[in-house]
Write a structure and sequence with these properties.
193 residues, alpha+beta, 3 helices, 26% helix, 30% strand
Length: 193
């Protein structure tokens, strides 16, 4: 499930942290919030802190020229992603958050009851027992199928002449059917011009 998400980053370098929630956040746009309060041509830069600690520019804004910046930035749940603005502009960032569905939650079973570690081990043991029972049933079925196959006599195959791919019984039937020579067939058919 997705839900709208937004935050305002204040002017003057004050940091905000995104991603501490239990949801992934996808930032899709940034825009200048207070452009009416700033002089034309004033600039601001939206920055994020990289893993190694250095600040990097995500977008640059110039009042009355470039006041919005579309992008797609994924901030994984549980991370500490810092944003700040250099300059006098306040920047609104917006996007959406991905709310985990109930069936994605690893600590819940099908009934919606939260399990502790002991309960999860019990469930795992029952799952293992079910798998063993299924394997035993499959092995017994294979044994029955094999026993049935041994008890049933194989179907008689047509006797084959080693030198010919046609069964011997078919050769006998072919020999009993009279055939006409090509000359006799040509004599009976009318001549075509």
């Amino acid at each position: 499930e997705m839900s709208f998400w937004a935050a305002t980053i204040p002017a003057g370098g004050k940091e905000i942290i995104v991603g501490e929630d239990a949801c992934d956040v996808i930032i899709t746009q940034a825009c200048v919030k207070n452009s009416g309060d700033l002089k034309s041509g004033a600039s601001a830069t939206l920055m994020s802190q990289a893993e190694h600690g250095a600040w990097v520019a995500l977008a640059r804004f110039r009042i009355n020229e470039v006041e919005t910046a579309p992008f797609r930035l994924l901030v994984a749940a549980g991370t500490e992603f810092k944003l700040k603005v250099s300059g006098q502009a306040e920047i609104d960032v917006a996007g959406y958050q991905v709310i985990p569905s109930r069936d994605e939650d690893e600590d819940d079973d099908d009934s919606g009851i939260e399990l502790d570690d002991d309960d999860e081990e019990e469930v795992d043991e029952h799952d293992d027992e079910d798998e063993e029972e299924k394997a035993d049933a499959q092995a017994q079925k294979r044994k029955r199928d094999q026993a049935d196959a041994k008890a049933t006599p194989p179907a008689k195959a047509a006797k084959m002449d080693i030198d010919s791919p046609t069964p011997a019984s078919q050769k006998k039937a072919d020999a009993a059917t009279p055939t006409k020579s090509p000359a006799a067939a040509a004599a009976k058919s009318p001549a075509t011009p």
